[in-house]
Amino acid sequence: MITEQARNGNSSEPLTGKPTAIRAHLEAAVPVAIAAAVIGAFYLSLYVVKHYPLAIGWDTPRYLFHANLVAARGLSGIPTSLPPPSKTLHARPGFAMVVLPLSKLFATSAFHVAAVVPAVAAIAVGLAAAAFLSFTLRHDPLRLAVVAVIVGLSSVVIRLLAPETYTDNLFAAALFLAAFVLIVAAVRDGRGMLAAIVLLGVGGIVHPPTYGEILALLALVGLMYLPSSWSAWRKEGRPVLSTPTGRLGLIVAGGAAITATAIYGLLRATPDTPLLTRAEARKKLREDVSLYWFPVTVPVAAAGLAGLSRSAFGADQRDRSTARLVLAILCAWSAVIAVGVATFFLGRNTPAHRLLAFLLPLPMLFALGLFALDGVVQRALRRWPWRRLAAGAVVVVGVVTVAALGAWDLYVNLPRRGVEWLQVGKVEDAATAAQYLDRTRVPASAPVVFVIDDSGPNPLSYVPEMAYMIRSVLPASRVEHAYIYVGDPARYLAGQPTLRPSPPTYNGNVQRFWPTIQRLLPEHPVALLLAGYNPAYPTFVANHSELVVAPDVAVLSGPRPPALLPAAPDPYPFHHAYEIALLGVGTFVVVFLIGLGWAIALLPRGVRSFEAVALAPAFGVAAIAVGALITSPLGLRLRTLGAVGLLAAMAALGAFAAWWRVRRPAESSPARS
Q: What is the pTM of this model?
């Protein structure tokens, strides 16, 4: 049983030296740990069940090649453009800042860490959402765990994790949810203002497009509180910056200043937004709507909204004001997303599917709806001795339903729709090509053309995906000089583009890539044909076997080695299920331990110890990101032993800050028990 001290204790002193207090905190943390384990197992088991040999996600190769560049050149050394596909992630360093130090710490490839960090980020999102509701609505540890599982296994988080795998979005969501805990404390009591600003700003650095939505919802909350803030200023004489709207404005301005300074000043970058054709955006939205199971989730979420509204306009004054702020945040969040989706239907090319994938208030309100139904059942059966068991069954059924629907989406719906993963054959072919370039001493600055093609239904999306796969394997020094020709190798040798009437989008890729290749052809660049990237490879090499220089690699133009080169060693796949399990657990533990000290040190009074534990993963991500940003101007490379030192330093500083925070009240109030 959770002790009353753990249930209601003040975490301004999260740990004391008393064995009974420590035991109470540990007991309270058990449900949090179980929730984290459930969420992590849910996602990491995908690799075992589906036999994916490498990280999933359409966006993962792009993250990886960007991390490849960061490892070699630092956060501020990323080129603003490359040969088509030209966009880089120079303004979104979150993935690289977290993955590169962890890969060095575990002495493994960034490819491996890329497979587990989305699951760790999903845990952080679920726990942070649960801690936000627990802190504001005073839930006990068991309810916190229930909310965490519901949010962590919800279709919203699943959609962020697959099929694209928006890892930066997941990181940012965890940071923003943790920031909301501090924002509520700051608006209500004036505490935690600086930490709220920093978390909000770091979240903006990790994913600027999502940051715009957060700023919009906070601005909307500020407008909701404008009348009461005006009254507090004019009638009560409170300073403007001590009113709710004033404090929100200060937090938003401070967070925006941190984000702008880091992106424009430190990274020397410009935030970008996702670019999709309207047809592609419409297709994604149409495919996504069914994933959210709105006929099931919306009615229960409506019950949660009703229950939260009753809390906001009832109970005692303090509870009522906090519940109103939670209600305002969740409603403003939902309104911003609804308006964004509406603009898509009004003709703007808004990424509506991405907005829906950020609708975290839906699973949060769903959880509150289960608790509201729990109360209804208890009141209806108040004379029945088993009423609590019956009410608990309602919550259990709700959690099982969310888990079942989520499992259906992740393990059936999305794979049926097409979950992309880094294919071993493609990775091996690109590695063999890189080995050929090194052994034949092709200069790193020399242009190299990869002749690739796609015979599938959507080459406009898959051809750039293959380009990102190639870049993710190439050494960073070659990425800026790797070019793509789309089409038939014979047409390339003839110096002509490959044009086809079907599928309709095929020639769009030709128009995108051919002008650059046409300008490059007079230089007679090295040109490679790889079996995994062009379906014409078997037929072509059957007639030109002399061009084969290594298994699955043919040279259309360029130096030929005196003998057939061997294939590159199998570079990255997981060979056993326990490898991904151990790496996933290790990654979570490291992020958690780094963040725990900072959570204890920075969270305001009123945050209980089990809530600090739940917020630790989000604080861990933030601490790693801040450390990477601070040390970047000093020349620290995130794939060196110095990055391991960075992780150790951030953990040690957090532990010292936590010790200082716990020690100070004890010294100032020695008589307090």
A: 0.94
What's the rounded Cα separation, in Å, for the pair 243 and 6? 32
Write down the mean pLDDT value for the chain.
90
Instruction: Say yes or no: 590 and 499 in one domain.
Output: no
Identity of residue 193: M
Asked whether residue 116 is domain-assigned, the answer is: yes
Measured CA to CA, the distance from residue 256 to residue 332 in angstroms comes to 19
pLDDT of residue 15: 47
Contact 25, 610 (CB under 8 A): yes
**CA 561, 563, 569, 571 torsion-angle sign:** positive
What confidence tens digit (pLDDT) does each residue in 456-482 have? 888 988 999 999 999 999 999 999 999
Q: How far apart are CA 228 and CA 231, in angstroms?
A: 5
% helix, strand, coil for the chain, step of 5 = 70, 5, 25
Question: What are residue 557's phi and psi, to 5 degrees?
Answer: -155, 140
Residue 635 Ramachandran class (φ > 0 left, ψ -120 to 50 alpha, else beta): left
673 in a domain, yes or no?
no
pLDDT score of 274? 67
Report which secondary-structure segment, H or E, holds 323.
helix 317-345
For residue 568, being part of any structural domain is answered with: no
Name the most confidently modeled range: 247-261, 275-289, 411-425: 247-261
CA angle 108–112–114, rounded 5-degree value: 125
On whether residue 564 sits in a domain, the answer given is no
Domain that holds residue 408: 4-270+277-417+575-668
Q: What is the SS3 string spanning 331-383?
A: HHHHHHHHHHHHHHHCCCCCCHHHHHCCCCHHHHHHHHHHHHHHHHHHHHCCC
Let me know if 538 is exposed, middle or buried by CB neighbors in 10 A (0-12, 13-18, 19+): exposed
